[in-house]
Description:
Blueprint: H1 2-19, E1 50-58, E2 69-78, E3 83-90, E4 96-103, E5 108-115, E6 125-130, E7 136-141, E8 151-157, E9 163-171, E10 178-188
Antiparallel strand pairs: 1-2, 1-10, 2-3, 3-4, 4-5, 5-6, 6-7, 7-8, 8-9, 9-10
Amino acid sequence: MKFLCLLIILAWSSTNLLAQFEYEPSEDYPFGRVHPQAPQQLSDFQPLIGESKCESITRTPDQSWNAPHEMIWKFKYIMNGMAVQDEVLRTELPNAGSIRQFNADSSAWYVHYYSAVGAPVTLPSWEGNKNEEGKIILYREQKAPNGLDGFYKITFFDISDDHFEWLGEWVDPTEAIKFPTWKISCDKIK
């Protein structure tokens, strides 16, 4: 009898605990949901939430373009609907991902990138926002190979519920010089 009571108490407490995290990914919501108390900007990534099949193209050392690689890019809500996480699965290149958090105090997205290549002491991060044209644009300071100051700029664009484009490029501080290094085109599959 004591065992049965203990089992009931444990079942009730674990159900009660799980109810506190109702915006996490679940059977009904495999990619999670936005928490009602989250910053409204979390909806910036709503069309990307889910799983997409993508084609990724990067530069070769001679600056021509490599052959495209296929990849799966998954986006989901984490931290009980208060942030977004993505995961990239590739066969030829290392897998990677990001944690995306919107900071209401600075009114900016902060994106922290990690990769299967190694574990850095601190994760590289990008900062940015969604603009009036619906593009999500993020920057990280990065010098050009010749030493010029600039940024690595990431842009999500042509965003819809079933497709999006991504561009990674080096830009100078005025963006008069732009050098694309990576392109990704994605179609939603889930």
